[in-house]
Fold this protein.
Amino acid sequence: MKEYDVVIIGGGVHGAGVLQAAVAAGHSALLIERKSLASGTSSKSSKLIHGGLRYLESAQFALVRESLRERSILLRIAPELVKLQAFYLPVYRDTRRRPWQLKIGLWMYALLGGFDSATRFGSVPKSDWIKLDGLQTKNLDAVIRYYDGQTDDAELTRAVVQSAIDLGGAEVAMPASFDQATLREDGVEIRYSAGGASVSCTARVLVNAAGPWAPHVAAQVDPPIFIPAVDLVQGTHIVIPFAVTAGIYYVESPTDGRAVFVMPWHGATLIGTTETPFNASPDQAHPLPEEEDYLLAVARHYFPALKSLTRADITQRFAGLRVLPAASQKAFDRSRETIFTADRDLRPRVLGIYGGKLTGWRAAAAHVMQRIASSLPHRPRRADTDQMILRRPLMNKNATFMLVPVLAMALLSGHARAEDYLSPTQERVRLTIGASRQSSTTNLQLDSSAGVQGTAVNAEDTFGLDKSDFEPKFQAMVRVGERHRLRFDYFSLDRTGNTTVLDPIIFRDVTLLPGDPLKTNLSLRMLGINYEYSILHSDRYEVAFTIGVNDTDISARGRVSTQARHVDQTEDQAGPLPTIGLDATYVLSKRFYFDARGQYLKIHVQNLDGSLGIYEVDGLYRLRPNISFGVGYNIVRADLDSTKSTESGFFNFSTKGPEVFVRVAF
């Protein structure tokens, strides 16, 4: 029977957050999800990462302050997933809140947000109202603009889970259904079903993050545990084929004055939400006709061009369930604070999460880890969740799932026989996607701006950086003439390290001391654009001279954070590095061929010496006339040596390793 430190039930954003927080703290964790990640409420929210402006009216200041702090963190660590959007508050003669009231609220919003740039607000000049997507201007007194965040909630959830898997120590059982948990003095025995079989495991702590299904999960724990009184409230959203582009409109429903959002969404408009009491099984949640009519009335009221809009125009509809504290008051007026319950105060074995907001998933996970810390063994921390960069699944280290649409294109492109294949030297378009196992070596020395010589270190040994990792591979080629080609390459490498400093290290303008708990991150991004001219060209072989530019971005960060000392030093180097080289293809037979290329250039610019070398050799087997499978080996080496008085030092980096990939060509 497998043992885990933490087992989480539910693959929504809160379950994903606890999985990430647990493995970041050094623990082993299993997430059990019955369908797919974000299949419940976490894909049916209003898609907003916001402080909750309206919660100021009910004096939920702590919630707003925490949400604004989390918004700031997510804008920083998930720039691909969370975007700052303009929000518009139109104020009409019959609007319940006047402009001065809204501005006082926004001033408090800015105060709780620390007056950072994302909390700015102001009035939209009347001359600019015409730019607001045809907003009704009759009886319009003012339009106030402020800023909050928008995201794709399902993509965010998947990115959080992927970040946990990338750290190591995280497992996901999916689809898998939770069956039962039996409490023991030192933990929990858990039984779940996966792939038609019953599976058992043990955990020191079971975290119930099942959203609207949380009460049902809690009822399967033996002996019985406390289940809080909660209500389920349905929120419906609709999508209409009318694109708002200026930003998100925060309006009052003409029916009852409730706040409703009208927002851009993938080239259309998303409108929501409703608040309908829900008493059935969570599996039966679905939009009601009266909810759709309620939201359509909002669109018709504020946008005259949509006067004829009907339910037949809705292109997408979905309903999610909020978990709120049981109360007699309207759902709109109830607290949005997350409810946490434990089977016992000391060394809890089961912890439940009820309710909560999309914005606060990371803070909720941190609270969970704090509550269950006494039940878990001390382990070396792997990372801090407020520093873990979240990226779209398309571009992360799981990028091989990009092969699916590419393969589909290739399989549908024709049914040519293998013997009728097009020679690789005649291909017009080529797409290559795969992954490589990179082993890296990094040596650097960063002198202080005052001229004090920095400490020369090997980053893998001294800073504890990962020596090897899986990374995505992407390449595209377009032949623009018989002998003329353009090639595009993308390469990325992200490594982290956790270690304790053994000897003093001068790292630019900070000194790391023995005993410092050091967290490091080194990232490399390289986008290459190359022109290739074929100096030898036939059906059997091709040799091309290449000249290109590689836009290279290198970022290194070292951080020490203790109660007595805080050090944070970041170094960034970015710029285009030109290269020249050769690219060769040799066709061995109808199905086998080889590719090889090399690029190199050494430059001296003012106080900077640099060189870049890229080398790759691949063998490919043609599975179909336009699909090839390849294996190969690549080497990338970059050297930078600066003699600039305030930024002197050197950086030597090399990475190499085997790769596998699929190539589609036409």
Q: What stands out?
A: The chain has three domains: 2-41+153-229+336-385, 85-147+232-333, 397-665. The radius of gyration is 28 Å. The longest helix spans residues 61-77.
